[in-house]
Amino acid sequence: MEKEQILELHAQACKKMNAGDLDGALEIAYKISNLGTDYYVSYVVSMLLMDIGNIQRSEKLIREGLELLEKNFETIIHHKGLAPSAYYNRANGYNFLSNLKRIGDIYAACFKKKTELDEAKFFYRKALEHNIQDASNKAEVWVNLGNCFDEIGRVVDAL
Predict the structure, then answer these.
(1) Which CATH number is 1-79 given?
(2) 50: CB partners within 8 A, 6+ apart
(3) H and E: helices and strands count for the chain
């Protein structure tokens, strides 16, 4: 299994997602998962599953991606350069789940002891603890963290 091959397949899946071919993107994600069980395969596949699941509003796919990421998380974050995006992607997974719950219940993120939104905030903060080189990626993490605060009515914290 070559990283270049995985990256090429990931790019193809992203193209299909951008073109609206979610079934094609999902097929490629599972094709990547058949390339092996190492940390990098699970890292890439988990991102794809969560993104596709978010677009399709599929809790099953989002959870599948989160479980795959969490299964290999300690290994992934110890590889150079992957920690910030691994924390960010884990936060996104929880944020996606929170958004799905809010579709059916606008108060889903409120009045509960611990929610997916709390998990998302925690992992966005963990991503920010790392040196994110790309300014647009860093801004994306800050915006998503702010959106989490906004969702629970903490506007000042969101700003």
Answers:
(1) 1.25.40
(2) 61, 62, 65, 66, 69, 89, 92, 93, 96
(3) 9, 0
Per-residue model confidence as pLDDT tens digits over 77-120: 998 789 999 999 999 999 999 888 877 666 655 555 568 888 99
Q: What is the dihedral of CA 113, 144, 106, 94, to 10 degrees?
A: -60
1-79 with 80-159: one CATH topology?
A: yes
31: CB partners within 8 A, 6+ apart: 9
Q: Say what the pLDDT of residue 112 is.
A: 58
d(CA 137, CA 131): 11
The radius of gyration computed from the CA coordinates of the chain, to the nearest angstrom, equals: 16
* Token pair in block for residue 55: 């677009």
Residue appearing with tokens 């959870």: 63
Measured between alpha carbons, how far is 45 from 7 in angstroms, rounded to an integer? 11
Domain segments of the chain as ranges: 1-79, 80-159
Task: Please return the burial class of 43, using the count of CB atoms within 10 Å of its CB with bins 0-12, 13-18 and 19+.
Answer: buried
Residue whose tokens read 């090429």: 8
Which CATH number describes the domain made up of 80-159? 1.25.40
